[in-house]
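Entry for FE2/S2 (inorganic) cluster complex. Fields follow.
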Amino acid sequence: MTGREAPGHPEARSADGSVNVSRGTMNLTLQVWRQAGPATDGGLKEYAATGISPDMSFLEMLDVVNERLIGQGDIPIAFDHDCREGICGSCGMMINGVAHGPSRGTAACQLHMRSFKDGDTVLIEPWRARAFPVIKDLVVDRGALDRIVQSGGFISAPTGSAQDGNAIPIRKEDSDSAMDAAACIGCGACVAACPNSSASLFTGAKLSHLGLLPQGQPERYRRALKMVAQMDIESFGGCTFFGECQEACPKEISIDVISRMNRDYLKAAVMQVEERQAGGGE
Ligand code: SF4
Ligand code: FES
């Protein structure tokens, strides 16, 4: 397990539970993976991150370092980011060997520098997985996840305009589980954290958020076959239930989605054999 802290950054709180007002600045040493492009070798380079406010986000700290690099005529560190509020899934990186860094349920963009101590050395690397080739420095190509979604992550029910909330009764347990699974932001931390580089938590989340709802039923079993097949095509590894994925997931998606994916896949495979034996089906 990764030893990630519980949410709330306890080191930033007083004994009475109140949040400390951060004073002073921190000086850190960064060991950052630099790689000019997909076809070149990369390596770690050391940078000083001085005068850093504990209230800065991790990405703001990298912005400060990059401004200094640009000022010196050096090439800034390339890293992916967009929303900077834990929604888009762009900002994945390994921080001290942990996907998204030390705070549990937190994307790298939501991590604050008060999670580190003055004088710390911080190791920053890109996701490491065959299916996520490095584009530059900390930026990897996560298109493989998009192709898994393209293979089956849709429904054929006409959507039209929004329906009344109670038009289609759905069990609360199912709607809650579907909503939890739909929180996946496609960041790829589950793959990076998995010793097998498996995308099972991601794929299980996408299958669950559609397969638990009535609108997702027509394609439910075909969807499981197609998305699991695409996962294999993309060179992701198999799941052996280490559980590192759910520890790393910034949306705290439960490994239960993988069990649901396996059940649907197994049922789909049996149905496919039966259809073939009956002389019909795909
Ligand atoms: S399951 Fe979690 S870790 Fe994996 S891609 Fe989705 S949000 Fe990221
Ligand atoms: S930048 Fe969007 S989730 Fe981090």
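NOTE: Strands lie at 26-34, 43-52, 94-95, 98-99, 121-125, 134-136, 139-140.
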